[in-house]
Amino acid sequence: MIKVENLVKEFGTKKAVNRVSFTVQKGEILGFLGPNGAGKSTTMRMITGFIPPTEGRVTVGGHDISENPVEAKRLIGYLPESAPCYSDMSVHGFLNFTAELRGINGTKREEAVRRVVGLCSLESVLHQSVDTLSKGFRHRTCLAQSLIHDPEVLILDEPTDGLDPNQKHEVRQLLKRLGQNKAIVFSTHILEEVDACCTRAIIIDHGEVRANGTPAELRAQHDLAGSVTLQVHGTPAETVKSRLGGLMLAQKATASLVDGVVHARVYPRNRAMNGELAKAIAEVTTKEGWQFDELHTEDGRLDEVFRGITRPDTLASKTE
Amino acid sequence: MNEATRNIWTITKRELGGYFNSPVAYVFIVIFLLLNGFFTFMLGNFFERGEANLNAFFVWHPWLYLFLVPAAGMRLWAEERRIGTLELLLTMPITAWQAILGKFLSCWVFLALALFLTFPVVATVAYLGSPDIGAILSGYFGSLLLAGAYLAITVATSAMTRNQVISFILSVVICFFLILAGWEPVTNLLVRWAPQWLVETVASFSVMPHFTGFQRGVVDIRDTLFFVSVMIFSLFSTSVILRGLRGA
Ligand SMILES: Nc1ncnc2c1ncn2[C@@H]1O[C@H](COP(=O)(O)OP(=O)(O)OP(=O)(O)O)[C@@H](O)[C@H]1O
Ligand SMILES: [Mg+2]
After folding, report:
1. Where are the domains positioned within chain B?
2. Nearest ligand to residue B245 Cα
């Protein structure tokens, strides 16, 4: 549904977005991650046709956003970063207006407004003026606006920003539900959201895509992913290290003595087989009669992966 | 109604609602009427003239509109930029032209309404004498065109900035120039050292010579075209400004 090819955006001499390409199919929920100023909002503004790209192409449902903007925009529901709403209108008036601009008329419009008011739990503020709304309600009003025409494509810039924990949960559930037959792109700074509802995630930094994959794939990029840790009592660290490092499935092992307990970590030869590795280690410990506890397989941590990819020092070491 | 007119109408309706939802609209209309009365009856010596026409009324409009039209139109785009709804509006399935026209029309309709409310002046002349109805109608028509031209300029300056005050000042300056270029005291000054053709060219850009005809009851197609061209040119500039803004 969404196809982004070699997107570049320059502000003066500064490249805010640099050769970004990806596609999103129907049924996919793409999480857009990256530190502040990475270029997430700029990319989304180009996808929705608000700012033209310096280079590159965006097509939405087969319509080029530069050549055929109106047709492409029809398919898109968009929540801008600041969740802007016309402050001189009531919530109901605002939703009515956006529905009208989307070409929804008559009883269909009442129905559409009622539907999104329900989806975003706006019943209690329906006739309140937008400028007296709390931040979370304003955010939800703008989110409701993006859903009013039941679009095939949803572009949401930080949809859970400013919401209370219950509403965050609600919105994630909503995205998951909607994602079954839509193409959704949303940006976020909350990594659990990626696990909670994305089918795929992109990490972008300094305008460039650094990683693109399912949450599990991203997690596996972590250096420690797939390694097995355990603590052994009453056995010398050296013995533990050489015995575990000698395992067929192990690439190497480390062990150190902390407070009289040996903390060991075994790295797998093949990450896909880490279940086997844990089993093999368990067998060794029983055979050797080691006293151990906390045998645990790391599945990699998304925040660590995120930091590893976007931390300035790792960037520097990569370019060296 | 086809889609384009429907979109324009949707936007016009919203903006009009925006005017009347706030007290600003009523304050504006009251000030407009008071100033009109003051200029016409005090400065224009309406009664002393003893003429059954509205010259004393219309002659002040270029000056009256100079401040009132920018005040009414300055928020149209500036406010949209300030609160960020521009991003929402321009990612809707409408063209920038439809948005520009919708906004322009809403404010023009509002000004027309304010102008319409000056009808007691007409009633007064009709009561005191037997005025030339044709001249009155053409005066109103010209006044409306004049307001439209100023408004289109304000729409353009409003798109240039997110600050309403700056937008107001810019449009006042531009409209003031459009008055001065053809205002008699200024042209008389210019003739002393500039060649005749130059003075005439400069003056032809002014609203003044184009507006006087309407007051006398002459609806000249060239004068009408002048105001319409100012509107088209300014609205076109607005679309260029809006595009440039997003491309920056
Ligand atoms: N209109 C503009 N003019 C100049 N620079 C801009 C403009 N808009 C964005 N930028 C720059 O482009 C870069 C990317 O900004 P962008 O808003 O896309 O970041 P982001 O990934 O959305 O960040 P955040 O997580 O803080 O929302 C930033 O360095 C920003 O300063
Ligand atoms: Mg952003």
Report:
1. 3-247
2. 1
